[in-house]
Automatic annotation (TrEMBL):
Keyword Hydrolase: yes
Signal peptide positions (record): 1-21
Enzyme Commission code(s) on record: 3.1.1.-
EC category name: hydrolase
This protein's name: Carboxylic ester hydrolase
Amino acid sequence: MAMGWYCTTLTLLAGAGLAHSAALSAPATQIVDLDYAIHQGTLGSSGSYYNFSNIRYGETTTGADRFRAPKLPTSVDRRLNRGQNFTRCPQAHPAWLTTGYEVAIGEPTSALTHPAFNISQVPPVNPEESEDCLFLDVLVPTEAFSRRSSRRRTATVEAASGLPVLVWIDGGGFSAGYKHEMNATGLMTRKSGAGEDFIFVAMNYRVGLFGFLPAQLNGEGDSNAGLLDQRLALQWVQQYIHLFGGDSSRVTIMGESAGGGSVLHQITAYGGSRPIPFQKAILQSPGFQPNGSPGFQQSILEQTFSVASSLTNKSIRSISDLRSLTFEELHLLNSVIVGGSPYGIYTYGPVVDGSFAPDLPSRLIAQNRFAAASLQGLLMGTNHREGILFDSPFLANDSDYRANIRQFFPNMTQADLNYAATALYPNDLSGKYNYTTQPERAAITTAEGCFLCNTRWLAQALGPKTGKIWKYLFAVPPAIHADDLAYSFYNGPETKTWEELPVVEEVANVLQQYIVNFVVTGDPNGAAKEPGVMRKALPTPLGR
């Protein structure tokens, strides 16, 4: 090709929470010894892979270790662990998601509800939820595990013959998400164009108050603890995946929404000053609220202390005071603050901390302060109507629009806000700019500012260096944020989108094939095909 790099567009033009798969018994020989723990795999529902569930990758984060960076496991448990007890980190959801769902399924504005958050809406603590939640699952194809069992299991041997690895980082607004939310059975059973299998890893990481309290401001903890959890899990993969038959030099990380935003932060971690524990990345609708200023972070801390004091009738003025609360008190605090978040916002999320996140990813990319040389390829996707879920359908005028944008971009100067509202997204509802209402205007602004620009920046920065970047647009109606999840993790006709809409099987099959091909060969087309410039519709394979 004459171009020094290319960005292939895969456009899907056809027409959520998925439980972990059922497990069958497995032979006692399917055992992996990690030194600090012994795990036995169970046979997945398809019979084609072993699931090693609930493997500890970090010590408990309770007590004095709340709001701090995670630690590698130090406790040793030599009892056989079959992973029967599923664990997730404490979860929380904003009340505005109820209205967002109504918008997604096409309810008219006159029928929409926007209930004010009430503490009575907080559900009981899920038995799976615990502060001791740093666990991951490893899914290994049965044939590959058997081959691995016949070899001497060392990192050197596996590097020569081990399988590629896909590490999934679940999304959920940085306030929810857990390792077994998505059912990877369909993805696991799909062969690559090269005929090679892969290993699938999914992790828990701390979310909400537990994972994203800006604790570093007061010198009493570590901000971005949830991102540090992810990093520790990726380091665990580097150290132990060979024991499962994986190749630590062929690791792809993948995430959607907050998971995609997490992948972006992992790419730009430490400003590129440290090696990255992966080689390729898949970013689906990568998003986060850019929280850079110490003042904004301080306001989150003050809000947390104030609400905690009100809920507990105690004087809460520091991180140490928060650590003194019971798990139940912290869980309620997290639920109340996230639940009452402004429309489109989750309150807690990644912040600039001067260390893991020395600046916003966009600035780090612009300054070439990220691991560009180590990345061997990127596959990125966005949805056609990303922003509609996050912007209030009740915006009535230009003032409402400006207040909405200020909420999403708290560090925006007044001059920048004026420029956005007049030059980029002017108050012209004639349809000239592809919007005819204030909510549509806001949705386009949010989609571009919080999702689309993230992929564009990476493509512009990495394209000339690697030439191995692909991008797709998911346009299957209604093509709202997260609709592509059910396609990525398609498991047959029973699979539905989060709006309970049926999945177009033909599109799901092709999208899954692109993902698997990229994981195994580094090219969504598969190793046997020439990379292409553009295809406008599926299922046409990518080519010149």
